[in-house]
Amino acid sequence: FQRFLGKTDVSQELEEVQAEARAQENLNIASVLQLLRNPAVRWQLITIIVIMACYQLCGLNAIWYYTNGILREAGFAEQLLPYITLSTGATETLAAIISVSMPYAFICKSTK
């Protein structure tokens, strides 16, 4: 922390890390089976599963297959195509992680 923050007194930051570690120890993690058995969150979980299953059927893999050709036809330089495709994929992956983790965080909070 001292090197990262550029200061010698990092006691407050260390206390925050220790407080977070203590909070994680008290966290009650629900299993998937427990979530499915809980009627309060069952429909939210089913909704998430159906949405993610439909996402797999929307044809996005075909779009990724043709991405380089589409970008090439749009006039992008050949040496930039892998970077554009990679950044687009990273953005999609980040959006998917956020869209899945937000409802999961809500479900875990409501099972307590």
Automatic annotation (TrEMBL):
InterPro entries on file: GLUT (IPR045263), MFS_sugar_transport-like (IPR005828), MFS_trans_sf (IPR036259)
Keyword Transport: yes
Record keywords: Membrane, Sugar transport, Transmembrane, Transmembrane helix, Transport
Residues annotated as transmembrane: 45-66, 86-107
Subcellular location(s) of the protein: Membrane
Membrane topology category: Multi-pass membrane protein
Signal sequence extent: none
Name of the protein: Solute carrier 2, facilitated glucose transporter member 9
Naturally occurring in which organism (per UniProt): Ilyodon furcidens (goldbreast splitfin)
